[in-house]
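PROTEIN DESIGN WORKSHEET
SECTION A - STRUCTURE
LENGTH: 195
TOKENS:
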């Protein structure tokens, strides 16, 4: 009887340690997944809870540069109207190229290689403020009741400039330009539209 109790204790201890080990391994793998999926760093293409991929503007630039290695960036734009996507335009082997990347999936939804062009209006995406900061400056100028429908960043008159197309969802629209290096609002136009 004593041997049976000793064997039971050993098996019980073995079972508990196996369950604990499985729990630690499971927690570690979940922790690693959650850290990866919540990471919003520059150029992130992070898994969402639905096992799809979402991409930020730098992630779209990364996809662009993977498709066109060594390409320079001319402009980045974002369209939130229907199926939100980023469009990155640039120069690759003396040709103008553009790539559209779905924000929700990180998939390429459009790719075009155009004729020959000179790369004279490129921007360094590492030297500009992030779109959210520029958008905050635009909203401070026109009011928090506006919402961004589209934005773009490109070189304009020697400066790198964000341009925001905004609406209240009602009868007002705004166009705001923000310096992409300083965050200074360069211009803003608010107009009332008729339906």
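SECTION B - SEQUENCE
RESIDUE ASSIGNMENT:
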């Amino acid at each position: 009887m004593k041997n049976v109790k000793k064997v039971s204790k050993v098996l019980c201890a073995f079972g508990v340690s196996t369950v604990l080990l499985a729990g630690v391994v499971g927690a570690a793998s979940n922790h690693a997944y959650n850290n990866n999926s919540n990471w919003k760093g520059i150029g992130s293409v992070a898994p969402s809870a639905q096992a799809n991929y979402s991409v930020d503007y730098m992630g779209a630039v990364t996809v662009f540069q993977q498709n066109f290695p060594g390409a320079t960036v001319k402009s980045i734009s974002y369209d939130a109207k229907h199926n939100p996507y980023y469009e990155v335009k640039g120069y690759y082997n003396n040709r103008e190229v553009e790539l559209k990347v779905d924000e929700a999936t990180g998939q390429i939804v459009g790719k075009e290689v155009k004729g020959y062009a000179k790369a004279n209006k490129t921007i360094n995406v590492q030297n500009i403020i992030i779109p959210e900061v520029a958008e905050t400056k635009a909203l401070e100028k026109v009011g928090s009741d506006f919402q961004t429908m589209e934005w773009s960043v490109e070189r304009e008159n020697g400066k790198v400039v964000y341009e925001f197309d905004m609406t209240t969802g009602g009868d007002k629209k705004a166009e705001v330009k923000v310096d992409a290096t300083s965050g200074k609002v360069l211009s803003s136009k608010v107009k009332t539209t008729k339906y």
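SECTION C - NOTES
Residues 1-52 have pLDDT under 50 and may be disordered.
Strands lie at 45-47, 53-55, 72-79, 85-92, 95-102, 108-116, 147-156, 159-167, 172-179, 185-192.
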